Amino acid sequence: MANTRQSTKRAGVEKKRQVRNQTVRSATKTTLKTALEAIKTLDAAKAKEAYMSAVKALSKAASKGAIPKGRAARKISRLTRMAIKTKPGVVPTTKSK
């Protein structure tokens, strides 16, 4: 139980942040799961769209602080390697000279 006005306010703010972060993490997990399933299927267009949305969701969650940046980078890397191994055309290449 909070003893001061400041600690009461901090407890309320933390509760709001916890709820917001939980919704972001949940949505990110769902998007990632959908992308993994799409990559395993045969439809390349659907897999590419799902891959891009998963990368976007992970990056956004990391930038908001809902998940650690390293965890997001690791998940994006693993998803990319899996997508390249399964369907080479899914991952857009960004090679520039």
String of helices and strands: HHH
Give the distance, in angstroms, between the N- and C-terminal Cα atoms. Answer: 60 Å
Count of DSSP helices?
3
Q: Specify Rg, calculated over alpha carbons.
A: 18 Å
* CATH class placement: Mainly Alpha
Quaternary organization: single chain
Q: Main β-sheet: number of strands, strand sense, barrel status?
A: none
Number of E-type strands: 0
- Class computed from helices, strands and strand pairing: mainly alpha
What percentage of residues falls in helices of 4 or more residues?
Answer: over 70%
- Chain-averaged pLDDT: 91
Low-pLDDT stretches are: none
What is the domain tally? 1
CATH superfamily: Ribosomal protein S20
**Percentage of residues in strands:** under 5%
What CATH calls the topology is Methane Monooxygenase Hydroxylase, Chain G, domain 1
Instruction: Give the name of the CATH architecture.
Output: Up-down Bundle
Describe what this molecule looks like in 3D.
This protein is mainly α and 97 residues long. It has a single domain, classed as Ribosomal protein S20 (Methane Monooxygenase Hydroxylase, Chain G, domain 1, Up-down Bundle). 77% of the residues lie in helices and 0% in strands. It is built from 3 helices and no strands. It starts with a helix and ends in an 11-residue tail after the last helix.
